[in-house]
Structure formats: structure tokens, C-alpha cells
Hints:
Blueprint: H1 4-13, E1 17-22, E2 25-29, E3 36-40, E4 45-48, H2 54-65, E5 72-76, H3 82-85, H4 88-92, E6 99-102, H5 120-130, E7 164-166, E8 170-174, E9 177-183, E10 192-196, E11 201-203, H6 226-238, E12 243-244, E13 252-253, H7 255-281, H8 286-292, H9 297-300, H10 312-324, H11 339-350, H12 353-362, H13 366-378, H14 384-397, H15 401-419
Parallel strand pairs: 4-5, 5-6, 6-7, 11-12
Antiparallel strand pairs: 1-2, 2-3, 3-4, 8-9, 9-10, 10-11, 12-13
Helix pairs in contact: 5-15, 6-7, 7-8, 7-10, 8-10, 11-12, 11-13, 12-13, 13-14, 14-15
The structure holds zinc ion.
Amino acid sequence: MPNARLVEHNATQFKKSVVELAPGMWTAVGYAASTQHMIEGKSSLAIVDTSESTGAAKDVLSEFRKISDKPIERIIYTHSHRDHISGAEVFAEGRDIPILASSTFSSDLVDQDNNRPAPHDALNRRTVAQFGIGLTSQQRISLGCGPGERPMSGLGAGHIPPNQFIANDTEIDLDGVTARLIMAPGETADHMVVWFPKAKVLIPGDNWYHAFPNLYAIRGTPYRDFAAWADTLTLLADLKPEVLAPGHTQPVFGAKKINEVLTTTRDAILYVMHHTADGMNAGLSMDDIAASIQLPDHLADKPWLAEYYGKASWSARAFATGTLGWYDGNPTHLGTLSDKQRASHMAQLSGGIEALKQAAFETEDLQWRLELCDHLIALGEDVSLLKAEAMESLAEVEINATARNTYLWEAERLRKKGET
Ligand SMILES: [Zn+2]
């Protein structure tokens, strides 16, 4: 049985719905990995974010068309992640319209120039694993940031590059609706949030959603600036929004509630920074820092800080490497043993490879079993099925959707390997 809280998060936060935020403003939730927003002006519409696929965008547009048949005259991207920019062609409906984004658009992405060395294959594999692409719907119960089940046709196919770049905070007129575009680095450096001062509606992009913030994505990301994200959450709370329509998960209503979700999320980020910096200052190892992180009770009890998407222990590792790099201050780590060398020593200590294998089968500590399996694999032993089973067991209790999907996706590959 999968983690019940993860199942419930998926059922409630990604329930398909078009929610009215305020008169003339709607958000579509649950149709795609991300949310899309429609703003109705006097004689035209504006769309904020466009989903990850033309398939999902078509579904959303047909829902929006039940509300208004006015032409879409403007698209705004909150940031450059593919799940927000890949359905634009559908909303543009073949017309050449303004597409607005921050002047730092794309700054977060791994080097796209294929002529230079970059770990594109690793990124692709890990992205596919994180989102459980190829898993069954029973396996992939959630993306953490979006529903487990969603249209996959035209994935990544409908992107239109922005044609108007915003360098500084700007007030714009969306056909009679005043909006403020605010530079707000957070989950990415290129975030631009949309604030409607009259209706007090805030579209924060991915700087807030109902899950622990993804300060590090296991698909692989450049360092996300923790301090900037925390500062942005203060800035957003200071706007005193009465409606919050995040880039993932359901909208939040009520000034008091919104202030609470934004400030506690900021405090959770600050807590990770404090915990990690204190540990580093005390000379602790990265493993000990990651193993000991635990949000304080007044944050741990907040449903929106549960680790459905981001994870505190991964965030601690990201903060450490993002600030001081990989060296943890322990000179032991200045030298290197290869996996095989280390595994040989482990086998020798254990009384041989068979003894190591027996320990891997016998231990009830699943993390330790995985580590022993890795030693055995480094020594050329086939323990694919044992490792696959351990990952599948971990997946069942895991609250984090990206960890669950990755465990199951990698387990499938090992099972196939074990069969050949
Ligand atoms: Zn997103």
C-alpha cells in the first residue's frame, strides 16, 4: 500500500477543478503538472503559465472557453520550467501575441548547448525517473507537484519563446485589469510573480505550493538560492494577498491563512539553512547533518510543509554543496577509493563476498541493504532483485513522490536486468 498521506495529497491538491479566484480570474488545477490562470479583461483574456504539454493545454483551454470566448491577447510565464511554458501554442491559437517573461528567463536551466560537455543524459534519465514516466498509474500515484495521471500528448511540444522581457518590477494593464509583475527569485532565479493589487490576488509561480519546497530536485538542478527564496517569501507575505494561486496545488483563500503558509514556508527554508550551517560549523559530516535534520514541531505540524515534493535532508545537502562545495572539511575525503576498492575492503572485513551477501539478505535496515547491495554490485555480484525489492519496500512508505517514483523506476530497470 502506498503512503496514505501521499495518496490523499494527490486526491485533494490535484483534484481537477477550475477555481474562481476573484471576479474575472480563474485557475485550472489538476489538468496538468502545473496550474494555469486566466484573467478576463474588457475584451480579451490573459493567460499566466501554459502547462507542460499541448494535450493538457487543450483540456484547460476548453474549460476556460466554457467561461469566456474572448480572444487571448497575452501570455505571461512565471518562470522557465518546462511544465509552465510548453502549452503556449495552444493558448496563442495561431496568433502572434505578446509573451512576457523575466529578463533572466532560462537562467535556471542546465547548459542547453549540446556542443559543450554537460550531463544531459544523466539529467534526462533522472527526470524520467523522478516523474515516473513509464510507470503504471498504480505505481505513479503522484508527481508531488502534480497529478499522477495527466495527458502526455504533446509533452514539451508547444513552447513559444518569450518576446517581451521584463527587467524590473513593472505595472501593466491587462485590458483594464492592473497587474504588477514582480521579480521574485526563489525556486528558480528567473521567477516573476503576478500581483493584482485591487483584487489582492497573487500568482506566486513555484515560490509556494502545498508541499515542502523543492530546494533541491533529485533530477538534478543547479544550486537554488535559499536566502533569495526566503526573502521572496517575506516580500510576498508583505503584499498581504487575500488569494494565493500557486503554480502547483489548489489556491489558498484568506489573508491570515496565506500569511501563515508563506511565512512558515520561509521559516522552514531558514531552518534548513541554520541546521546545515550549524552542523558545518561544528565540523559534522554531510551524512550526519542530513540524517539529523527534523523540522521543529511548530513547522512539522503544518500540512503544507510535508515532504510530498521537496525534502529537508536533500535540501541540507544542497545548501552545504551550494555554499562551500563538495568538500566537507574532513581530510579523509581529499583522497578517493573507487567503489570497487571500498567494496573489496568491506568484503574482506565481512569474511568474504558470500558473508557480505548474507548480511545484505539478512539486515532489516533497508537503507543499509541498499548500501550493501551497492558494494556487491561493485564487485560484480548480481543482486539486482534484492536491491529492486528494497527500493520497492522503501517506495511504499515514502511520502515524497519524486523519491517514490525514482525508487520504482530504478527498481523496474533492475528487475529487467535481473531477468536477462
Ligand atoms: Zn512548476
